[in-house]
Amino acid sequence: MSLKPTSNPSRWHSLALLLGLGWGLLQVVAASVPVETRVQAVLVWGTDEVKPTAKNLKEVDAKLREKLGKIFKWQNYFEVSRKTTGVTASKPQTLKLSEECSVDIKILPENMAEVKLIGKGKTIVTRRHSLAKPDALVLAGDDKNNTAWFVVLNFN
Amino acid sequence: MNTELKLQALLDGELDARERREVEGLLAQDVQSAVLMQELKWMKAAVAGNEAEVKLPETREFYWSKIERSIETAEKQAAAAPAGRAWWLKLLYPATGLAAMVAVMFVVSGGRTTDGADTESVPEDVNAISFRSEAEAMSVVYVADENGTFNPVGQETKNEPEADK
């Protein structure tokens, strides 16, 4: 009696088919769970003046300070407010950063987010931002007395 | 050799002189053989007069070589057909699985194949510029408003700067 290595191709093919279908099923299950994008919004005031008194202001963290300092001209960057939320495609969020400023955040198809900066009830700027890049989104503008405001949004 | 074959051989001129004399003697004595011989002559005449002539467009050797090649080709195809079917069947299950995976991925991804591009829009009365700092990993939209009509920071936050230390 001789022993020969045997192989049944149809068995391997069936196994491959089952693995493929199983993997597809996992993808469907994963897709049915809404993916939440964590969004952190920081309102920053940029000025060349020193820190105002009696105000609950703190300087932005060193990393953000360095990044802003390399792009913009101001010497000091103070954090006015910070808000964090989770956004899904079916659940847009609004973050109120100050009395006059809020941001509407919506997740769009094609791995995009839409951010609307609202000031006094009016849309100042609408930005569609690709979430494929690791970039922070900075909405900024001139303020009085040669200062500037910044809304720094990080998506995770 | 029976009588019929002898008569046929005589008709075809295949008998030697002695055999021919013997058969001719038989025909003179036997009426049935003479009738049969007459029928064979009619048959030969009818066949010779109505046989269709086929002219080949090429030489005989080439004509038969074509037939031979056709037979060989048909035999090879017949031999290869089961193997081809088996090859097709071998790929059927993996191909089905792969197609199912791709279909699921397409459905899961919502049919998208690329990421969208960054864009921004502002009201007509607002001037904005946008740029990207790759080094700082920042995409910036800067709203130019020299009058500072939009004050998200709030005046109460800015006033009374701390005395220089």
Summarize the structure.
With 156 residues, chain A is α+β, with helices and mostly antiparallel strands. Chain A has two helices and nine strands. The model of chain A has no long low-confidence stretch (mean pLDDT 86).
Question: Could you characterize what this model shows?
Answer:
The complex is a heterodimer of chains A (156) and B (165). With 156 residues, chain A is of the alpha+beta class. In chain A, 22% of the residues lie in helices and 46% in strands. Chain B is 58% helix and 10% strand. The model of chain B has no long low-confidence stretch (mean pLDDT 78). Chain B has five helices and three strands; from the N terminus they run H-H-H-H-E-E-E-H. Chain B is mainly alpha-helical and 165 residues long. Chain B has a domain at 3-50. Chain B has a two-stranded antiparallel ribbon with strand order 2-3. Chains A and B meet through helix 1, strand 1, helix 2, strand 7 and strand 8 of A and helix 4, strand 1, strand 2, strand 3 and helix 5 of B.
- Segments of chain A where pLDDT lies below 50 for 5+ residues? none
Radius of gyration of chain B: 52 Å
Rounded radius of gyration of chain A (Å): 25 Å
The number of E-state strands of chain A comes to 9
Multimerization state: heterodimer
The average pLDDT value of chain B, as a whole number, equals: 78
Give the ordered list of helices and strands of chain B: HHHHEEEH
Shape of chain A: elongated
- How much of the sequence of chain B is in beta strands? 5-15%
